[in-house]
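dumping this here so i dont lose it
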């Protein structure tokens, strides 16, 4: 993956994290960061290591397979959000 591939990956991961923060009920104020990290890891692994039969199909930009990266990012972001949802208590204001 080239440098622009990493930029696209991190920007996409931040967008996925912010969308998840907007759609889900907030548990903590920084969970979008955790979701973004999960999305970045999922996108990188799916794009570079071709896990689960994703392979190198679809469009490539900056030596990054876009569709496998997007699928991996969304799957890992959903897993991170589920873990946060079921393990973290919501903030209470006294």
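and the seq i came up w/
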């Amino acid at each position: 993956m080239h440098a622009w591939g990493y930029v696209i990956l991190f920007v996409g991961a931040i967008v996925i994290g912010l969308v998840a923060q907007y759609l889900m009920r907030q548990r903590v104020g920084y969970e979008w960061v955790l979701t973004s990290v999960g999305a970045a890891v999922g996108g990188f692994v799916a794009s570079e290591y071709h896990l689960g039969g994703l392979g190198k199909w679809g469009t490539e930009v900056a030596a990054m397979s876009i569709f496998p990266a997007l699928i991996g990012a969304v799957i890992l972001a959903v897993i991170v959000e589920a873990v946060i949802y079921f393990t973290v208590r919501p903030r209470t204001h006294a």
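The two ends are 49 Å apart (CA to CA).
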